[in-house]
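Subject: Predicted fold for BIG2 domain-containing protein, 238 residues

User T.R. writes:
Posting the sequence so we have a shared reference for the thread.
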Amino acid sequence: MRLFHVLIFLVPCLTLLSCKKDQEAAKIPVNTSTVQLLAGQQTEIVITGEVKPYTVASDHPDIAGATVQDNKITVTTNKSGITYIRLSDGTLTASIKVIATTLAGRNWVRITGDANYETKVTVEGTDASFAATLKKQLEDELALPRNTLLGVTYNDAPPAFREEYADRSRREGAYSYDKLVATQVYNGVTEVYRLIAMTKTIFAFERDLTTHYKSLHADKGLQKVTVTRFLRDRPFPG
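User M.O. replies:
I've generated the structure tokens; pasting them so everyone works from the same file.
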């Protein structure tokens, strides 16, 4: 009799567990359920099941929006924050967590031992000889220990940055970040960097100096002057 009562109790429990597992399994399969990006970055998420007329929506479009075509979801982040992208085919659904961040809380360090990520100077202009001379001048200046950046850290509260150089000097100042553009202010000088993702953890920090050098050499036909440093997002120890 006792065994009968136990079985009566277990049957609905097992049924509920089975239903719960079926509900968990009955989701649209995607290749990831969480993505973390710098605000302004874009990524693709693949729907690994069959292609259907899917719809997609974001809980907070101001943080990140999404579109879907065939079996690919394109997620575009706008500002820092957390939101969820909701995918549906009319019957099944899937939720993707999107974490958009600023530069803060990351340890940005110089990449050594890889020629692909050495500091790059680009100078273009109608006067090829002058462009080559200016390029060499900038490269020599950047190679000096006082200009050799080892790493930089950012904080959001308050917004600030700190750079470390090979001669053990530091530069500290205010910073702001918006959609892959970092603006740093040091001793009244504003520096603007455009971030370009090279890999998931390596970014190019490109500074456009064209206007500055055009004003200094108006007769040299300068068209483009940029300095690009490559930094790796390396987690802090512990």
